[in-house]
Amino acid sequence: MLRVPSEGFRKPSSSFQRPRLLKLKEMFNSKFGSTPKFYVRAPGRVNIIGEHIDYCGYSVLPMAVEQDMLIAVEPVKTHTLQLANTNPLYPDFSTSANNICIDKTKPLWHNYFLCGFKGIQEHFGLSKLTGMNCLVDGNIPPGSGLSSSSALVCCAGLVTLTVLGMSLSKVELAEICAKSERYIGTEGGGMDQSISFLAEEGTAKLIEFSPLRATDVKLPSGAVFVIANSCVEMNKAATSHFNIRVMECRLAAKVLAKHKGLQWDKVLRLEEVQTQLGISLEEMLLVTEDALHAEPYSREEICRCLGISLEELCTQILSPNTQDELTFKLYQRAKHVYSEAARVLQFKQVCEEAPDNAVQLLGELMNQSHRSCRDMYECSCPELDQLVDICRNLISSLIRCFALENIN
C-alpha cells in the first residue's frame, strides 16, 4: 500500500537512492564484469481520474509515484544489446542492436525495453547502433495499474537517447515512447509516458493531447491519496481485453460520426466527434443516447451501420487481436468516455476553486469514476470492487466517529 500526500509526486532523495544505486552497481559488476557509466530513472504513475480516455483524445489527471524503473548502463563497442534484471523472475536477454524484433504474441519483460530502444532508433532513422549492457531494477509492482511497463519503455528510450548522444525535449520523448509502446500490440494513449517524463515535484498534472501539454493541478491541502493493490495482476499486452475497449471506442466514434453526417471513415477517436460537432460533453451524452443502443452490436450490424463489408471491418478498423470478436458494446463505452472526460474537467475546477468541501467533492467524482469503470467500461474486477467498498465503509465509520465526538 502506498500513501501519497496531496502535494503529489516527490523525487526520492539522494540519500534514499544511494544504497539502491550502490547495490545496483555491485550487481552490474557481478553480471557484466564492469562498471556502469550512467543510470537512468523513470517513475511509475497513478491516475487520479480520467480512466481509459487518453486514447480517445481526452485529458487525464495523473501524478507520478516514487516507485520507479532504474537502469544501470554501459555502452559497448560491439553491436550487441544485453539486458538483465535484478528480479530473478525475468531472464536475461541478448540481441543485435541492429536487428530489433518485438514479439507481440509474448509480452516478455525485455520487449518493453526494445520498444523504447526501437522508438528512438526509428525516430532518428539510424541503422547501425552501438551495443550496451543494461541492468534493470524496478520497484513498481507489476500488473498493478501503476504503469511499470510504460516506465520501462520510457527508461529504455532515455537510455538509448543518452548512449547516442542525441537530444530531445521531454514532450518529444513522451510522444515517441507512447507510439513505440504500440510495437508490443497495445493500442494505448499517451498518459503513462507523458506523466513519467513531465511529472514535477509537488503537483499532479492535467495532461492534454494534440498537442501534448501538461498543466499543474494543485490538490487540496491535507488530502491524502492511498494507492492499494488488489493483488490481481493484468498485463494489458497479454490479452485482448485492453484492445477490445479501444476498438469499441473507435467503432462508437465512427457510428456516432456516421449518425451525425460527418466523414466517419476519417474519425478514430470519440473526442474528434465532439470537436467536429462543436458541442459540449453533456450534449455528446445526449447524442450517444439518441444514436446508440445498449444491446451489444454484432459485427454484421456495425457493417450495416457503416455500409462496409466484414472484410473491411476486420482489415481496416479492428486490430489484429480483436478481429475474432463477435460483439461490441458501443453505447456503454461512449457513455463512460464522455462522462469521464467531464469529470476530469470538474475535478480540475474544484481544485482551482478550492471550496471548503473540496475533498468531499473530489471524492464523489472519484466514486462516480469507479462506478462508471465498473458498470459501463467493465475494466474493474470483484477484488477491486471489494477493496473500494472496504475503503468507503472505513471512511464512513471514521466520519461517524468524528461526528459523535463533536456531539459529545
TrEMBL record:
Pfam families for this protein:
GalKase_gal_bdg, GHMP_kinases_N
GHMP kinase N-terminal domain mapped to chain residues: 111-198
- MF GO annotations: ATP binding; galactokinase activity
Q: Which InterPro entries match?
A: Galactokinase, Galactokinase_CS, GalKase_N, GHMP_kinase_C_sf, GHMP_kinase_N_dom, GHMP_knse_ATP-bd_CS, Mevalonate/galactokinase, Ribosomal_Su5_D2-typ_SF
- GO BP annotation list: galactose metabolic process
The organism's superkingdom is given as: Eukaryota
Could you tell me the keywords of this UniProt record?
ATP-binding, Kinase, Nucleotide-binding, Transferase
Choose one Gene Ontology CC annotation of this protein and give it.
Answer: cytosol
**Galactokinase N-terminal domain sequence ranges:** 27-75
What family is this? Belongs to the GHMP kinase family. GalK subfamily.
NCBIfam families referenced in this protein's UniProt entry, alphabetically: gal_kin
What the protein does comes down to: Acts on GalNAc. Also acts as a galactokinase when galactose is present at high concentrations.
Q: What is this protein called in UniProt?
A: N-acetylgalactosamine kinase isoform X5
Provide the species name: Mesocricetus auratus (Golden hamster)
Q: What is the lineage of its organism?
A: Eukaryota, Metazoa, Chordata, Craniata, Vertebrata
Q: Which gene encodes it?
A: Galk2
